[in-house]
Design a protein that fits this description.
The chain has about 450 residues and is an alpha+beta fold. It is about 40% helix and about 25% strand. β13 and β14 form a beta hairpin.
C-alpha cells in the first residue's frame, strides 16, 4: 500500500514529483501483474484439471481490482495534495505532464493564497431565497400648481383659490425579494384612471399693500387730509374732502399710486400715500373714533343725542381741569357720563352749562346749595329762590330731566321711565333753540358752546 505520509511530509513538494511517483507506482503494479499472470499460466499448464475459462476469469478479475485500487488511490492523493497546496507560498508551480517525454511541456498555474471554504459557499447559496412577485397597485398622479401674479395682494403673499387633487393610476410591476428584503422593482405598465385637479394660486406683487400689511376690503386710515377723486388723477373731478384719521374701505388697487376706496358711502380714488392701516399704526382706530366725534361738534349740533364718548373719555376730559378749583367736575365725571347714556342727552353740553352757570362751581349757590345750574333762581332773588340739593349729582340729574322733557325733544318723544316729552319750551334741539326760552342772555348759547369746544378738545 501507499504510504500517505510519504506524499505529504513536506509542504514544498511539486506536483511533478507526485506524478513521477504515481508513474513509478503504476509501473511496479504492472510488473507485479505480469509476474502473477506468468505464474498462473505455468500453473495452468501443469494442472490439466483446472478449466481454462476459470483461470482466465480470475486473472482478469485480479487486474481489474488492481486498476480500480490504483485509480482510487490516485484520486485520493490528488485531492489531498490539491487542498494542501492551495496554502503554498509559491506564486506558481509547474505541473508535470505525462507527455513530458514528448516535448517536455509544462503549464504555469497561479496559486490563490486565500483558502476557499467550499462548505460555506454551498451553505450560503443554498440558504439564499429569491422571490419575485407581480402586483397591480393604485398610485397617485401628483397635481400641478398654476400661479398667477396679482397686484391686489401684498408682495410675496400667496392665496390658494383652488385646492389641488391628485390623479390616480394603476401600476403593474414586478418586485424581487432576497430573504424577504426588497431588492428591485420594475414597472411593466401604467394605466391612468383619474386626472388630477390643478392647484390654482395667486401670488401678490403689490409693494404698497405689503408695506401697510393690508388687503382688499380692509379698513384704512388717512394720515393727512385728502381728496377723493372721480378718476385716478388729481386733475379729475373732486368728489369729497376726507379729514385726517378718518377711515375708508379699500375696494381696488388700479396701480401702486392710486387706491379705489369707499368713504361715507361714496366711491372714488385717492392717492395711496395718504393711507395706512391699524397693523402699521395701531392707534389709528382710536384716533378715527375721536375724530368722528370731534366732527359732530358744531354750534348747531342737536343736543338730544348722546355725545358718543366712553367712560374713559369722560374721565380724561374732566381730569386735571385747570379751572376746576374744587374738583367738582372731576369728582362727578361718571355722573355726567351716566346721564348722557340714560337720558339721551349730550353730557358735555350739561357739563358746559354747569361751568357757565356756576363759574366752575365757585358761585355761592353752587357752594352752599350744591346747585351748579342756579336752578329755580329768579333774577330778583337768585340765591333765595334757587333749589338746594344734597349733592351735586342730584342737581345734575334734575336738570337733565327738565331738558329732555321740556326743551330739547319734540312733543310725544319717548324719554325716561316710559314718559314722553311735553315740549313745553321746545323751539328746536340746538343751543340757539334752547337759548330762546331758557336764558334771557342772547349770547348764552355762544358762551356755553365755547366751553363745549374746550372740553371736546381735551381728547385730541
Amino acid at each position: 500500500m501507499l504510504n500517505k505520509k510519504s506524499f505529504f511530509e513536506s509542504d514544498n513538494r511539486q506536483l511533478t514529483d507526485v506524478f513521477r511517483e504515481l508513474q513509478e507506482t503504476r509501473l511496479k503494479y504492472e510488473e507485479q501483474n505480469k509476474k502473477m499472470a506468468k505464474k498462473v499460466h505455468n500453473s495452468t499448464a501443469n494442472n490439466s484439471s483446472v478449466r481454462p475459462k476459470k483461470r482466465i476469469s480470475s486473472r482478469r478479475k485480479t487486474v481489474s481490482i488492481s486498476l480500480s485500487l490504483f485509480a482510487v488511490i490516485l484520486a485520493f492523493i490528488v485531492a489531498v495534495f490539491w487542498s494542501t497546496s492551495i496554502s503554498a507560498k509559491d506564486a506558481s508551480i509547474e505541473l508535470y505532464s505525462p507527455l513530458s517525454d514528448i516535448g517536455k511541456n509544462s503549464v504555469s498555474i497561479e496559486i490563490n493564497r486565500h483558502r476557499i471554504n467550499a462548505h460555506n459557499i454551498i451553505t450560503s447559496n443554498s440558504a439564499l431565497e429569491t422571490v419575485k412577485e407581480q402586483v397591480v397597485e393604485e398610485r397617485d398622479i401628483p397635481f400641478e400648481t398654476l400661479y398667477t401674479e396679482r397686484n391686489i395682494l401684498p408682495k410675496g403673499e400667496e392665496v390658494i383659490l383652488q385646492e389641488g387633487i391628485n390623479g390616480k393610476k394603476n401600476v403593474t410591476l414586478v418586485r424581487s425579494y432576497e430573504n424577504g428584503e426588497l431588492k428591485e422593482e420594475n414597472i411593466l405598465s401604467e394605466e391612468k384612471t383619474q386626472d388630477f385637479l390643478p392647484q390654482i394660486v395667486d401670488i401678490g406683487t403689490s409693494d404698497f399693500l405689503a408695506k401697510i400689511q393690508a388687503h382688499l376690503n380692509d379698513t384704512l386710515y388717512l394720515t393727512k387730509k385728502g381728496t377723493l377723486y372721480k378718476e385716478t388723477s388729481d386733475s379729475s373731478e373732486e368728489i369729497a374732502e376726507i379729514p385726517i384719521y378718518l377711515d375708508v374701505t379699500l375696494l381696488d388697487l388700479p396701480s401702486e399710486e392710486w387706491c379705489k376706496v369707499s368713504y361715507d358711502g361714496i366711491e372714488g380714488y385717492i392717492q395711496s400715500t395718504y393711507l395706512t392701516s391699524d397693523k402699521v399704526n395701531p392707534n389709528m382706530p382710536e384716533k378715527c373714533r375721536i375724530q368722528k366725534i370731534m366732527l359732530t361738534l358744531d354750534e348747531t349740533m342737536p343736543l338730544n343725542k348722546s355725545s358718543g364718548f366712553t367712560l374713559e373719555d369722560y374721565k380724561k376730559i374732566f381730569s386735571n381741569l385747570p379751572n376746576d378749583k374744587y374738583n367738582i367736575f372731576e369728582d362727578n365725571y361718571e355722573v355726567f357720563y351716566n346721564i348722557d347714556k340714560k337720558y339721551n342727552i349730550n353730557g358735555i353740553f350739561l357739563a358746559s352749562l354747569a361751568i357757565h352757570e356756576s363759574a366752575w362751581g365757585t358761585s355761592q349757590i353752587a357752594q352752599d346749595k350744591k346747585n351748579l345750574f342756579g336752578y329755580g333762581a329768579y333774577d330778583e332773588t337768585p340765591y333765595e329762590s334757587s333749589f338746594e340739593f344734597e349733592d351735586y349729582s342730584e342737581g345734575i340729574e334734575l336738570l337733565a330731566k327738565v331738558m329732555v322733557k321740556y326743551y330739547i325733544n319734540p312733543v310725544g318723544t319717548k324719554i325716561y321711565d316710559g314718559e314722553k316729552a311735553l315740549a313745553t319750551y321746545y323751539n328746536g334741539s340746538t343751543l340757539a333753540d334752547v337759548n330762546i326760552r331758557y336764558a334771557s342772555d342772547e349770547n348764552w348759547h355762544s358762551k356755553v358752546y365755547s366751553y363745549m369746544k374746550m372740553l371736546y378738545s381735551r381728547l385730541q
